[in-house]
Amino acid sequence: MRIAIIDDSGLRATILEEGLREAGFEEIDVVPPHGAFVARLERMAPDVVLMNLGNANRDSLEEMLAVSRALARPIAMFVDQSDESMIGAAIDAGVSAYVVDGLRKDRVKPVLELAIRRFNAFSKLQGELDAARTELAERKTVDRAKAILMQSRGLSEPEAYALLRTTAMRQGRRIAEVADALITAADLLGDGR
């Protein structure tokens, strides 16, 4: 597992790195949060990112948001102090674990494991949500296509669905694709509903 530590204080980075090495991790890179560090992280493609921000502020949270967007990886953040708005901003930015005043090398591994588990759980939920949204959108498309067929060809709803299904099977396409093509054609002909 490749782990990136984002930190610009040598002592804090050393605590994190020692905690990781004692836990058996070997691929560790320390990246100072300066310049084009997000691009550097993208090239490194770490599996997990640990950020030690000390006293986090809005600018550092913005940088973290950039890291979260660029990598889509588990991120654990260590800060010395925080407040409700900072915690909310961190969660919104995609931080999987947010640890206040808890930078000790013996805590690094449990925090790392927590970040990975929370990230995986969130990713699974996000995937299920995306699938549900896609299914709902496809169902609406099929319903609209059925309505067009029912109106234009005088078919019942089951007959309209059967026509879409057999057309999809004959063309080796999904029903939603055939329905979408039908809606597009109906719109072009001025017959869409």
TrEMBL record:
Domain of life: Bacteria
One Pfam entry name: ANTAR
InterPro entries (alphabetical): ANTAR, CheY-like_superfamily, Sig_transdc_resp-reg_antiterm, Sig_transdc_resp-reg_receiver, WH-like_DNA-bd_sf
Signal peptide per UniProt: none
Domain ANTAR as annotated: residue spans: 122-183
Domain Response regulatory: start-end pairs: 2-116
PANTHER family referenced in this protein's UniProt entry, alphabetically: PTHR43367, TWO-COMPONENT RESPONSE REGULATOR-LIKE APRR6-RELATED
Protein name in UniProt: ANTAR domain-containing protein
Source species of the chain: Sphingomonas agrestis
